[in-house]
Amino acid sequence: MNTNDDVATEETLDVRFVCSVFALTGHAGYFAPGFNIRYDEKDIGNTTFITGGGTRLYLSRVGDNLDQSGDAQAADSHFMADRVVAGLLISGAGLFRAFPMGRIFVDTPVEKLRWHSQIDLQPFYSERVRAVYDAFDENEFASWFQFICENIPVRRALHDAVQAINNPVEAFVYIYRGFEWLKKGLNLSWDEIAGDIGVTTKQIKAVGQIANDESGVRHASRSGEKQRASLETYSTWIAGLIDAIESARARVDKSYTASDSKQIAEKLKVAIQYDPYP
């Protein structure tokens, strides 16, 4: 991993190169903190250099096994951008959406790759935004990014947490499915998940009833009625899902200490939409 002002160690890479550019936007008006990380796909030998900050995300992918299909590279870059968005959320930087802006293909061999970044926008910050930036830990972001790349159920659950925040009216579908990813993917019981987040098993199952039966969210109904999103209700259960994800990582990664409820609340304060109907 490299800091914003460092240049990566020079090394010989006889590979092709694809760079995808995304715009990062956040509903709360925050700009993304700067980060540079490297992700090596050990199974196929490709490497992605991930650089972001301000309003941009750059994904530079190099390797001997790159598919020259534009559609394939577009799909791969979107999957990677989703992981970046999830990593920023869980590491407390806020909630962002990534919109593709362009893609560059370099078909000639890249013999030496030097890597550094220039953040596209450095505005004057309010005290609240400065506090978010000061609290952001690039090492924590990189650690979470690596973990969610390697652990599919946790990655899926975290993606559902992102979707729950982005879609407050439909939130319980994503919240409950997030719990299901952890339960089935990590072979946990509902009792274990409930115990991890400090609620009863009955309360967890009640979320499933809301999603499936009571709100017209997961299943269509003849009446077409839906439950109106409540900030208190949906934000509380999103916090519960993040708590379960933190606990799931601590189960898998014995060196990791899960965030407490206050730390989770601080992460979500810069991500939750306070007005479900802006």
Descriptive overview:
The protein is an alpha+beta fold and 278 residues long. The chain folds into two domains: 12-127; 151-269, no CATH class. Helix content is 45%, strand content 21%. The chain contains nine helices and five strands; from the N terminus they run E-E-E-E-H-E-H-H-H-H-H-H-H-H. It has a five-stranded antiparallel sheet. A hairpin with a 4-residue loop joins strand 2 and strand 3 (46-54). The longest helix has 22 residues, at 231-252. The model is unreliable at 1-15 (pLDDT under 50).
Rg: 20 Å
How many domains? The number is 2
**What would the average pLDDT be, to the nearest integer?**
82
Shape: globular
Main sheet: which strands, in order across? 2-3-4-1-5
The topology string of helices and strands comes to EEEEHEHHHHHHHH
Classify the helix fraction into a percent range: 40-55%
User: How many β-strand stretches?
Assistant: 5
Uncertain runs are 1-15
Class by alpha and beta content: alpha+beta
Count of helices? 9
Distance between the termini: 38 Å
Specify the biggest β-sheet: 5 strands, antiparallel
How is the secondary structure organized here?
Blueprint: E1 12-25, E2 32-41, E3 46-54, E4 56-63, H1 70-90, E5 97-112, H2 127-135, H3 138-150, H4 152-166, H5 171-185, H6 190-197, H7 201-214, H8 231-252, H9 261-269
Antiparallel strand pairs: 1-4, 1-5, 2-3, 3-4
Helix pairs in contact: 1-3, 1-4, 3-4, 4-5, 4-8, 5-7, 5-8, 6-7, 6-8, 8-9
